[in-house]
Amino acid sequence: MTLTDLMDRAITDLSVKTQVHATTWDYGQEDEWSLNQEEGKLIWTFANRIVTAPAQIIGTYDASIDESNGSWMWSWANPSIEPQMAEDAEHVRTFGEHNRHRVLQRPSYDCTLDDGWTFAALAMHLNGRQGVYKGTDGDTHIFIAFGTVSVGGLALSGRR
Fold first, then answer.
1. Cβ–Cβ contacts within 10 Å for residue 99, how many?
2. How many Cβ atoms from other residues are within 10 Å of residue 123's Cβ?
3. What is the DSSP string of the chain?
4. How far apart are CA 113 and CA 110, in angstroms?
5. To bridge 146 with a disulfide, which of 30, 53, 61, 67 should be the other Cys (CB 3.0-4.6 Å)?
6. Are 149 and 129 spatial neighbours (Cβ–Cβ below 8 Å)?
7. Cα 87 from chain centre
8. Is 37's pLDDT higher than 50?
9. pLDDT at res. 153
10. Relative orientation angle of helices 3-25 and 113-127, to the nearest 10 degrees
């Protein structure tokens, strides 16, 4: 299987999983989100509940110059990301080394936002994760792969 075929399969996998999450727990409709790097946990807050999942940061996309043409950086190359939060991305780099896919080994490069989604989908697929969330902080998009989701009870005001 070529890398392009694998990426296409990963995007399809992500699309199906995203639809299931949207249908079952309103993925994408959260009031706010947060990421706890120390605990490795992604948290979505809704008016009536909190949803959590184990998480890994796959990479970041800097759109400060242009939303459609920016710069991707794998989490393993980003010093602001805790090493334990970059293990899935490191697995993608190892996969790239073993299969001679240079695009998966470079720490950063210019690409489109859609390319960022593709890299994150590939990481999700290769690591057996349950989905990808794209958080935004200013001009930076943070691609986070997540595992099994837990739906909690009532969300408390101001709680993250």
1. 11
2. 28
3. --HHHHHHHHHHHHHHHHHHHHHHH-TT--SEEEEETTTTEEEEE-SS-EEEEEEEEEEEEE-SS-SSSEEEEEGGG-TTS-GGGSHHHHHHHHHHHHTT-GGGT-SEEEE-HHHHHHHHHHHHHHHT-SEEEEEEETTEEEEEEE-S-EE-SPPPTT--
4. 10
5. 53
6. no
7. 12
8. yes
9. 55
10. 90
Tell me the C-alpha to C-alpha distance, in Å, between residue 82 and each of 30, 48, 89, 100, 127.
Answer: 25, 31, 12, 27, 18
Extract the tokens encoding 76: 């393993």
Token output for 32: 């706010």
Structure confidence at residue 144 (pLDDT): 98
